[in-house]
């Protein structure tokens, strides 16, 4: 298939692009490089540099060398929860307005498949754990609200298309780890200019780039008092995108039954606390990693763990990198290699 991946110069997008290439697809990356990196775009993919809303019509219309587009994976997004509170306009425009333009272009050019990067942040503070897809969606931050708005927009477009557009929204829990280097292809991992995620921050302590890690609250109603999250390896996440495309390419009753738009959680179903993650990083790096308890971070839910039963049953997804130390080890290899690159 010829597949367009937006945000393909970013962390998740670049790993997805590599998996698509490995599976033999033609890949066009659309990225404005505002947060992504040119050198993260896998060789073998064609990069169209530009804003998704501005270039969607040309790329999906077969402009340049693209030809007919069989599907789009839409990863491009603003994704910092904290920033979304102080600059909501950036998130409503960057996530919602941009995606509405992409959806218009998809419909105009009759692109039949869409896989969207949604998030566990659409659920907010859960009432039950693990979280299933029919749990209430009450986002506690603007980032989650914008992703939920897009999920709704996709649902209505898919329903109105009368079967012309099929879509899958994948609700990621805590993506972590890195895609290891293979042959000439470099490792692909998390390289944010503004880093807010736990594992890369803890590894920065091990690398001597920061003195200690702040633990945001030790008074949560969890076993050790720190927040619990469901960490999923980025390679397992990427595989789910390929499976979603396969499902959309077939005559899938699951898509029809979902009104043309299927929503699937992606997580391992196991929660690890902040202290357990820090401990795993100490084991993997051999560094003492000083930690200090700090106040809770605004908008953080205490526990976020996925039920991925639907992804397993409907997509046939089976995560294979479920060991926390293994996830951290891949992130550590990447962090060390990108420091010396
Ligand atoms: N944490 C710390 N100290 C830090 C950074 C994080 O204690 O310096 C804690 C957080 O409070 C949280 C956990 O580590 O309990 C994980 O935090 P991350 O920032 O790594 O991830 P989040 O769970 O906040 O958010 C991630 C994605 C979001 C997504 C969300 C949904 O980054 O995009 O998962 O589950 F919306």
TrEMBL record:
- EC number(s) on file: 5.1.3.2
Cofactor(s) recorded for this entry are: NAD(+)
Q: Which class of enzymes does this protein belong to? A: isomerase
**Gene Ontology MF: a single term:** UDP-glucose 4-epimerase activity
Is the keyword Thylakoid in the record? no
Q: Does the keyword Isomerase apply?
A: yes
Q: Which Pfam families match?
A: Epimerase
Q: Which reaction does it catalyse?
A: UDP-alpha-D-glucose = UDP-alpha-D-galactose
Its annotated pathway? Carbohydrate metabolism; galactose metabolism
NAD-dependent epimerase/dehydratase domain mapped to chain residues = 4-247
Could you tell me the keywords of this UniProt record?
Carbohydrate metabolism, Isomerase, NAD
Family note: Belongs to the NAD(P)-dependent epimerase/dehydratase family.
Question: NCBIfam families in the record, alphabetically?
Answer: galE
Q: Subunit notes for this chain?
A: Homodimer.
Designated name of the protein? UDP-glucose 4-epimerase
Q: Which organism is it from?
A: Actinomycetospora aeridis
Gene designation: galE
């Amino acid at each position: 298939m010829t597949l367009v991946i937006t945000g393909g110069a970013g962390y998740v997008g670049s790993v997805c692009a590599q998996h698509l290439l490995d599976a033999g697809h033609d890949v066009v990356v659309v990225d404005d490089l505002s947060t992504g990196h040119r050198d993260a775009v896998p060789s073998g993919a064609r990069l169209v540099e530009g804003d998704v809303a501005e270039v969607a019509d040309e790329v999906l219309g077969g402009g340049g060398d693209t030809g007919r587009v069989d599907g789009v994976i839409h990863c491009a997004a603003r994704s910092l929860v904290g920033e979304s509170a102080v600059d909501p306009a950036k998130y409503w425009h960057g996530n919602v307005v941009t995606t509405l333009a992409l959806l218009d272009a998809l419909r105009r050019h009759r692109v039949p498949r869409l896989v969207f990067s949604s998030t566990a942040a659409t659920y907010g503070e859960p009432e039950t754990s693990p979280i299933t897809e029919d749990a209430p969606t009450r986002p506690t931050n603007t980032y989650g609200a914008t992703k939920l708005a897009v999920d709704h927009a996709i649902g209505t477009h898919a329903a109105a298309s009368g079967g012309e557009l099929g879509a899958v929204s994948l609700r990621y829990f805590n993506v972590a780890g890195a895609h290891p280097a293979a042959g000439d292809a470099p490792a692909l991992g998390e390289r944010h200019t503004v880093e807010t995620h736990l594992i890369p921050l803890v590894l920065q302590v091990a690398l001597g780039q920061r003195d200690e890690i702040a633990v945001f609250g030790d008074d949560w109603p969890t076993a050790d008092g720190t927040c619990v999250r469901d960490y999923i390896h980025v390679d397992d996440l990427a595989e789910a995108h390929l499976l979603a495309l396969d499902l959309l390419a077939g005559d899938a009753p699951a898509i029809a039954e979902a009104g043309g738009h299927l929503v699937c959680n992606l997580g391992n179903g196991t929660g690890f606390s902040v202290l357990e993650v820090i401990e795993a990083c100490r084991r993997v790096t051999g560094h003492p990693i000083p930690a200090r308890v700090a106040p809770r971070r605004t908008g953080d839910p205490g526990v976020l763990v996925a039920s991925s039963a639907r992804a397993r049953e409907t997509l046939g997804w089976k995560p294979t990198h479920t060991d926390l130390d293994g996830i951290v080890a891949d992130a550590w290899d990447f962090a060390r290699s990108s420091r010396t690159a």
